[in-house]
Amino acid sequence: MQQMATTVTLLLGAASSPGLGDGTGRDGFQCSRLLPRRRQTRPRWVLCSLKYGCLGVGEPGEPGGRSAASPVYSSLTVSPAGDAAVAVVSSEQKVYDVVVKQAALLKRQLRPQQQAPPAVARELDAPRGGLREAYARCGEICEEYAKTFYLGTLLMTEERRRAIWAIYVWCRRTDELVDGPNASHITPQALDRWERRLEDLFAGRPYDMLDAALSDTITKFPIDIQPFKDMIDGMRTDLKKARYKNFDELYMYCYYVAGTVGLMSVPVMGIAPESKATAESVYGAALALGLANQLTNILRDVGEDARRGRIYLPQDELAEAGLSDEDIFKGVVTEKWRKFMKRQIKRARMFFTEAEQGVTELRKESRWPVWASMLLYRQILDEIEANDYNNFTKRAYVGKAKKVLALPVAYGKSLLLPYSLRNNQT
Fold this sequence. Notes:
The chain is mainly alpha-helical. The protein is 59% helix and 1% strand.
C-alpha cells in the first residue's frame, strides 16, 4: 500500500533477502544495485536498491481511536443454550496489550547499553564494512526519501538519530515488499522469509549492512521485536485483503502498518527525564499518531486506491451513509460523500489530538521532527476539505511554502514543557 511509506516517513516522524549473492533470487527477481561484497562467506553482505527490491530465497525444499490510558472493551457472545460466554477481543484490546508490553520493556530497560553482539561486530569489521558506514547509508536513504524529517533528526544526539534512521530504513524496505516494483510477485512465503530474517537480525545475525545498523540499534535501546513482526503481519493483510467490514478491522490494519512505527520509535526518541507521564500514556500517544497518519493517508488516497481495486474505508459506515463500492469506483463527489468524509476527517483529527499531549513528553531534542510531521499531516486533512472532499481525482498535498512555515511553529511547540508538568502546575 503506497500510503504506508509516507506514514513511516512522517511518523518517524525494496528489500533484499538471504540467498541473493549473485543478485538474483531463485524466483528470478534481480537486484538493481549491489555494493561490492567481500569473499563468499556467510552471512554475505548485499545492499539492494530500495526501488528494486529482491525477493528472498528460502531453504531447499521450501514452498515458494483512543490512547492506551483510555478504557478498551471486548465483546462477549453467548450461545442460545446459555453456554459459557466466548470472549471476542476487539482490535483495540489486542493493540492495548502490545502497548502495555512495550511500556513495561521501556520501564525495566531490559536491554541496557552494551557492545554489539560478536556476530554483528565481526561482520562489520570486514572491508568496506563498519557500523559507521552502515548508519551513514541509512541516513542517506532517510535524507533521500524524507528530507524534512531527516533535517529534524539532526537535532537529536548522534546515537538517537542513527537509531531512528535504521528503523526508518527497515520499515521502508518492508513496505517495498508489497508496494515496490516486484509487489505483484510477492507471496506469503516471501514474507515468512523476511520475518525469519528479522528474527536473525534481533539475534545478532544481520544479513546485510542495513540490517546490521538495526541489529546494533536494538542493543542500545529497549526495542522489542513484536511491533516489527506486527508490521509484517500488516503486509500479509495487504496481500489478501482489499475491504474492511468495520472500523475495528481497519483499526487493526492501521496499527499493523503505522501504529507499530510509533511503538518502535518511543524507546529511541526517549521520554523526557522531567516528564511525569506514564510510559503507557506516551506509547499510547505514539500509537495514536501512527493511526492518525495512516487514516489521513487513506482519506487522501481514496481515488488512487480505488483504481487499484482497493477500498480502505469501513464498509458498514459506507452503507450507513448510503454509499457503495460502486460509488467509490465512479468517483463522483456527492452530498452523501461529503457527509461521510466529514465524519472520517473528524475521527482522524481526534487521533491527532490524542497524540499531541504525548509528543510533549518526549525528550526535548526528539520533539521537533515529530511535531513537524504532525502539523504537516494535519494540513493534508485541511487540503481535502479545501478540495471540496474530492479525493477521487485530486490529491491533497501540502505545498512547499506551507511546509517551510510549519517548521518554526513545530520548533516552538517542541520547546514547551511536557504536558504532565503543565497539568500539575495548574
